[in-house]
Amino acid sequence: MKIMTRLLLCACLALPLAACQDEADTQETVRAPVTAPQTDDRDAWRAYLNDVVGRNMEGIFNQPYVYLVPTDDGEEDFAAEYERLAERAETDLARGIVRGNLLAYAGHESSSVADMVLRAFENVPDGSMEGVRVLFIGDAADNARVEQAVSPAGVEYIFIEK
Fold this sequence. Notes:
alpha/beta, 4 strands, globular
């Protein structure tokens, strides 16, 4: 009987200690948002996109589609790279994007990004993308034309000014 009493006493003493947690362990750390790059540094843009897309993934169940539009730096390979990305964006939308997906479009030159979004959504049937979130990261001057192009598809449109 003494052993049972001692075990119960130890359990009663240990229970409050087990329930106490360090306050720092229970608080979530909130990272400051990464600022949009002001240059065409692809690594900086990738880090920025990882942050922005991650902050907008609530309710998204699948891997996001991210389109980082290259900058026209006068290099010969720009046109080919832009064309490949634009074709990929068109093909992805032609296959059909279902509810629970996110599409993110960004790049240093906002007008080029907007042009790509318009081109990609050109043949998307009205109402065919309900439940899909589209992020356009660019300049406010391009926001209206992008929103006008994607809205008929029924997407949840989010504009993020860079």
